[in-house]
Amino acid sequence: MNSVTLRSPLDMHVHLRQDAMLDLVAPLTAASFAGAVIMPNLLPPVNSVERLQWYTQEVRRATAAFSFAPYMTLFFRDYSEQELMAAREHMIGIKLYPAGATTNSEHGVQQIDAMGHVFAMMEEMDIPLLVHGETHGFVMDREAEFTRVYRHLATAYPRLRIVMEHITTADAVALLDQYENLFATVTVHHLYITLDDVVGGLMRPHLFCKPIAKRPEDKEALLRVCLDAHPKVMFGSDSAPHPVSMKESPGCAAGVFTAPIALPLLAQLFSTHSSLDKLQAFVSDNAQRIYRITPPSTEVVVEKVPMTIPDAYDEVIPMWAGSKLEWSITKPAHQ
Ligand code: DOR
Ligand code: ZN
User: Which of 177, 238, 311, 314 is flagged as catalytic?
Assistant: First the structure.
C-alpha cells in the first residue's frame, strides 16, 4: 500500500499557545486533524470557566477556515463542585500537571494526594483526567516512578477515566492491561527517537522534550502497542512549539514541533512495519470510542510521495527540519 485515506484523524494532545503563535500553529494542526485536545498550559493557565470560554473562542477564530473541533481542557486545580458543573460542557477533560514538571506548570499540583475530593467529583461527573505523569526524581526515572500514582488513582477512582499522556516507557505500557480505567496517548517522536538521538551525538535541541525520550526497549514497547492499535492507546502529538530563540538557547525549552508532519511520519512508520491498516484506529477510532466523541467528518490522504520537511515555520523549527520524508499529505483536510 502506497497510500492511506484517514477519516477524521485526531490529535489527542497538542499545544496551540496563544496570540501570534496560535495563529501560526493552529491552522497547521487543523489542516491535518478533524479535532484535537488542546492543552491548557498558557500563562496564566486556563483554569476558570471564563478562561476556558475565551480560549475556545481564540482557537475557533484561528481555525475558522477548517472543519475542526477543538476539544478544550481545563488546567487542574482545587475546583469546587459549582466550578466543575459550570465548566463541564465546555471541555473534554482536566489536565493535571505536577508543579514544575514542564513548560508553564508552575501553577500545577503540589500534593496530588490532597486532591482526592476533586478526583471524586470528576469521577461522579464523568470528567476524564489527563495526566502529565512524571515525578521530580532523576529525569530518566520520572515516568516509571509516577506509575505508583497511576496505580493509586486507577484503584481509588475506578470509574474515573484516566489518560496517561505522552507515555514513553515500557513501565507505563504495562499498566494499560492492568487497570480498566487507564488509557494513554503516544506521540510520534517517541516512536522514532531514543535519548541517543537527543544527546548521544551532537545535542539536538529540537528533539528535547518532556518526558525525555528513553531507552530502545521503551521505544519498542511503545511501538508494539501503537502498531497493533491497542484499543486503549490514542495518538497525541504533544506538538509543542517554541520560538527558535527559546530552543537554541543555553536554557532550551522542552517541546518538539511535529503538527504539520505528524501524519506523514506516522504513515511512514506504520508502512515500514506493514501496519498501515492499523493507523485509522490509532489516529481516530480509538479516541472516538474512549472519549465518546464524534468529530467532524473529514478525509486526509497520505501517500508515498516524498517531501522535504521545511527548515522552519516562521520562527518555529520542526522536528528533523530540512530532511526528507518518504510520505506526505497529498490531500489535506479542508479541500
Ligand atoms: O516537551 C514538552 N513541552 N512537554 C510538555 O509536557 C509541555 C510542552 C510545552 O508546553 O512546551
Ligand atoms: Zn503536552
Answer: 238
